[in-house]
Design goal:
- The chain is α/β, with parallel strands linked by helices and 421 residues long.
- It has two domains: 2-147, ATPase, nucleotide binding domain (Nucleotidyltransferase, domain 5, 2-Layer Sandwich), CATH 3.30.420.40; 195-382, ATPase, nucleotide binding domain (Nucleotidyltransferase, domain 5), CATH 3.30.420.40.
- It contains 15 helices and 14 strands.
- The protein has helices spanning 60-72, 107-115, 124-137, 157-160, 166-172, 181-195, 249-257, 261-270, 273-278, 284-292, 296-320, 330-335, 337-344, 356-361, 387-400; strands at residues 2-8, 12-19, 24-32, 40-44, 51-54, 85-92, 103-104, 143-147, 203-209, 213-219, 222-226, 325-329, 369-370, 379-382.
- Strand 3 and strand 4 form a beta hairpin.
- The model has no long low-confidence stretch (mean pLDDT 92).
Length: 421
């Protein structure tokens, strides 16, 4: 059984082809600059050189067509024919309250996703476009939706409701939803294995730090709080998003700069965060390099981000009552050792003893690493995330009828004998 996982952004389509019988990635890649022009595909196959092809993709359907063409292309492809694909798994960022687990896509499901696209206007529309495009290109196979928000639907009411007029929740669904659910799911279950415990016996804080950043308090194996909210704008400092700020600031700046609601929303989502502070960078590697070179704004950007990460650890530790482990994951979480070090400095009093040499050596996206001392009461791990594997296992289980939900399903990566390939 061969599963194609698709993750459609506003101007990109990421893909991964997974052979379920062999339990290995056959190919993966990305089509970039979809819609905006000068688009191209980067196609990776284990053991081969990366293949790049420039191909104009005015919409997502053409981009997915290009992916399929590349997968079956005689020289660079890995399939003899399109019929070898058994099913397609789609990342859907926002599922609202209706979806608490992955589901087979039908007309009703797609309509429900469309109904909540106003809650994730930057993400759901391209997700929907990708689903419709893939259904047009691959009409003969099942399509499965995997929701970013599903993992967080276990949050209690007191954690997801905002102190706002209750009718806003009733009429418009204004509440905390949370995102990066598949990532938090994967790394929390891997952390339980590393701790030698069952997920139900673990309290863990997971910190997904990339261009987008979210944290999750996981109690007894399920999400009880998370940093992103109604939209992916709330929470930690991110590459271009502000995260938590005084809610009066937008109205204040709208008056001062004569900005529209759309303009202020764009600034908070696309021109704030690390980019807003430094004025030129979103990639933390650039920020770290220039901070070491004496750039004050890069230095303060690192301090702000690390300080807020530290505060989230303290906040979620208080909410959990007892903490077994903290997990860093995603691009910055896995590779940004200076940010991890700044975040964990001074936390010995609450039971986190950082081993600086272990932390510095944890600079790979291929290995799970302990970065605290052996006698640290609370363990801190760097665990490379694998959202596509979650996609694949959900798809296979839905097809064979064994899927229940993320709390009760027996994922392969939650077992002691799991080996990451």
């Amino acid at each position: 059984m061969v599963i194609l996982a698709l993750n459609c952004g506003s101007s990109s389509v990421k893909y991964q082809l997974f052979d379920w019988e062999k339990k290995e990635v056959v190919a993966k890649g990305m089509v970039e600059r979809v819609i905006i022009g000068d688009s191209f595909i980067m196609h990776e196959v284990p053991g081969r050189e990366t293949y790049r092809k420039e191909y104009e993709c005015p919409d997502h359907k053409v981009a997915i067509d290009l992916i399929i063409q590349t997968l079956v292309e005689p020289e660079h492809g890995v399939l003899k024919q399109i019929g070898e694909i058994s099913a397609v798994g789609h990342r859907v960022v926002h599922g609202g309250e209706e979806f608490t687990c992955s589901v087979m896509i039908n007309e009703q499901v797609l309509d429900a996703v469309k109904e909540v696209q106003h809650l994730a206007p930057l993400h759901n529309p391209p997700n929907i476009a990708g689903i419709e495009a893939a259904q047009a290109v691959l009409p003969q196979v099942p399509h499965i939706a995997i929701f970013d928000t599903a993992f967080h639907q276990t949050m209690p009411e007191h954690a997801y409701l905002y102190p706002l007029p209750y009718e806003w929740y009733e009429k418009y669904g204004v509440r905390r939803y949370g995102f990066h659910g598949t990532s938090h799911l994967y790394v929390s279950k891997r952390a339980a294995v590393l701790l030698g415990k069952q997920p139900k016996d673990c309290n863990i804080i997971t910190m997904h730090i990339g261009n987008g950043v979210s944290h999750c308090a996981i109690k007894g194996g399920v999400s009880v709080d998370t940093s992103m909210g109604l939209t992916p704008l709330e929470g930690a400092v991110m590459g271009t998003r502000s995260g938590d700020i005084d809610p009066a600031i937008p109205a204040f700046m709208m008056q001062k700069e004569n900005l529209s609601a759309k303009e202020i929303d764009s600034i908070l989502n696309k021109k704030s965060g690390v980019l807003g502070i430094t004025g030129r960078f979103t990639d933390r590697r650039d920020v770290i390099e220039h901070a070491e070179g004496g750039d004050h704004r890069c230095k303060i950007a690192l301090e702000i981000e690390s300080y807020r990460l530290k505060k989230y650890i303290g906040t979620y530790m208080a909410a959990l009552g007892r903490l077994d482990a903290v997990v860093f994951t995603a691009g910055v979480g896995e590779m940004g050792w200076p940010i991890r070090e700044k975040t964990l400095e001074g936390l010995e009093g609450i039971g986190i003893k950082l081993d600086k040499e272990r932390n510095k050596s944890a600079m790979t996206r291929k290995r799970e690493t302990l970065i605290t001392t052996d006698d640290s009461p609370i363990k801190v791990f760097v665990i490379p995330t694998d959202e596509e594997l979650v996609f694949t296992e959900d798809v296979v289980a839905i097809l064979d009828g064994s899927y229940t939900d993320h709390m009760n399903f027996d994922y392969s990566f939650a077992r002691k004998d799991f080996v990451r390939k």
